[in-house]
## 1
Amino acid sequence: MLRLICTAWLALWLSTNVAAAELNIEITRGVDNPIPVAVVPFSWDGAGTPGEDVAQVIANNLRQVGEFQPLSRANMLSMPNEESEVYYRDWRILAQQYLVVGKISQIAGGQSVQVQWEFFDINRERKILGEVLTGDMSQLRDIAHEISDVIYQEITGRRGAFSTKILYVSAEGAIGSTVYSLHVADYDGRRAQVLLESSEPIMSPTWSPDGSQIAYVSFETDLPRIYIQNLTTGQRRQVTNFPGINSSPVWSPDGSKLAMVLSKDGSPDIYVLDLQTDEMIQLTDHPRAETEPSWTLDGQNVIFTSDRTGQPQVYQANVNGGGFPERLTFDCFYCAKGQFLPDGVNLVHVRRETRQDNSYGIATMNLETGRVITLTDTALDESPSVAPNGSMIMFGTTYNGQGVLDAVSIDGRVKFRLPSSQGDVREPAWSPYLN
């Protein structure tokens, strides 16, 4: 059985009826000295209630990345909503470095709202930022994420990723009656929506570079086949129908090609499909398995996992051909699922150090210096996916016997978990920037 949800992309985010299997963040590790910031409840001028606590969403966002410690509302000495009401001494007494205030006004005659917010440096006693945002009432959470992105960038110098989305696969039910679902949600697992539901496995979801399409593997014909789905229209098309394995699709940085794994000619190898011409190029040809492709940032090479030396290691091959694939990892018993951070130098991968060590963790390796940083201490980590700002890596792991999604900062100091209330969740895919 296959059920495809073909709602428009905008409707996914404006709908107030959120699907089941929503994830909820649990912070499992933070920095030792998080930055104190006070986010005052935004005032409301309108009928009823706004339906979304914008200030709380901002505070949650900042807390969840582990780098900030929002002040409890119960400890606030005052509740200003604009600059004229701000008394810096109140916040210095509470040892706050930054302050966020704001107010929301309902625009007469409809569901539109105006959100005015301001951001202050307490130590310097000055306003850093201030702006007015307008949107629909149902977009208040999006507005809160946008404000969070701006604050995060102002403090850290890195673009925030709170307005991004994630894809993930859930499996629910007993063996023989399992229901597989492909979800899209906010980065924190909220407002989850089901894009595809099937009694057969769904695997390897991935985003197009502009975020308008996704690709994934579905077993709905009893065999693994690759599909592309348009998120605006819900329309999808099957792009492979080869004998054997059809798996692991991933878009090139310019969106014109799709790397994948096919076994149509024997053992699994890496192929590249030109989505404009339907030309298929075989990149690898080896009797051992070649799997898990990803792209270098310039689109000139495909990274992949191969056990051609007897154990899985990470290699790269030039898409224009010529020469043998270059091996990138050497100092591990098992290195797989490689992909580059946005700096193009550090390789994120799943790593098992030795034959005796049965733990599979997430690590980065600097290809220029050879330095390896192990980021996780859980044992069965898989499917890492990098946030578009390169600050966090989301991955699948097991907790209390159930599949969950974890995220860890690229320095390993911050970690949070998104456990599902229903079934196992696996194979996260972090979106590109969507605006």
## 2
Amino acid sequence: MRRVLPGPASPAWVAAETLGSAVTALVGLLFVARIIGPQAAGTGAIAASVFLTVDFPIAALFGDSLLQRRGLEERHRSSALWATMGAAAVGMLVLWLGAPLIARATGAPVTGMIRAMALLLPFSAAAGMLSALVLKERRYRLLASRVLLCQPLAVGTGVLAALGGAGAWSMAAQQAAATLSVFLLLALRSGWRPQRLFQRAALAELWPVAGPQILALLVFNGRYRIFIVGLGMLVAETVVAVTHIAFRLLDVAMAVVTGAASRLAMPRLAALQNDRAALAEAYGDLAQLQALIGLPIAAGLAITAPRLIEILMGGPWIGAAEPARLVALAAIPGFLVGPAPALWLALGRTRMNLLMQLVAFTLPLVGLLVLRPQDAAAAAICWVLGSLAVPPLQLLVTLRALHRSPAWLAQRLLAPLLGTLVMGVVSAWAARELAAQAAVPALIGTALAGAIAYAAVVAPALGFRWPRALQEA
């Protein structure tokens, strides 16, 4: 059996991880939400958003700086772990004390759920750092195991809790199962054990990269969570639930692209940080791969969103179709830039990531304050303000850092752009022709027509070869 499976460092495991994560996250989200209903799903979404806003930056506190650093020593690893655990303890206290305030501000009964999930922070923090060390070694098979083994367990836990009448608490149960199972897997399989070693000097060496990067990740992860909490202060919980479902459907699909690009780009670009010519070529290949996967997914979701929502969620959730369409269309420009966050990490210029995320964070909140949306479609308009503003800025500074022209990048993006354009025309035509058909055959027919059109354009343009970014054993 070992001879049949790809090697531990094969990019095939990146595809398995990202696709598996998308499928299990989608199944878990849809099944639990359908069972517990919009109101309970909205309550659970608020509690989960608050927890993840605190959890994500703690779990990633020193991970990227360890990944980027050349000449990594044990004093860096152990000191970073103990500092991360200290941050987790502070996070637990913040969530515990802040839970009643969030409950009063949103009018949702989330105090108990937030406090219960706060207990997961130390396990998530340790798992996050272990994941970074495993990624640095390009052990993609172990990273994929987190999804292929742990996510089905978490989804099953959430579904069983929902069927048992747990309501909004089902989402907390699913989060707990995911966090604890991933921690146990990495603790047993990573092969690294921390020492009783803590050096402030070691942390000081990591901080110039870790500081801005963790703030960028905090803003990146927190902008959606804070947006949902802010929206919950303006609208009813059912509107929050519909908005959350629309955004999460897109997030799950886009994670296939962003997850794969990040897994492949971070260790590869970090290893080439001292060779600018090779770094630029690798970036161009990765940008092409990201566009090849991301553009057709975003365009396809924009075309098929109404049918997809109808099939997956049913009548009570049909309001999620239009916001899903808007968010999908707004995601397209982001796939034309390439994995810019990984580039800034490799160059040690993580302040650039922070700057871009601050722009993406601020504009949707300004939109909430100015437009004060009352439905999910209006909320989506507020959200996409950040998605549309960042790509042009990112493109300008990225090409300048790589000393490359727009024509250089356009040459690599020509095949996916042309393929997506043809796919969009064919898919839109198929959707109109199949409008009178039942939802399932109409969706299948539309997707199949678009996929055939996309492959017919892209395959000859690439010379019937795999993208160069995947041609690595």
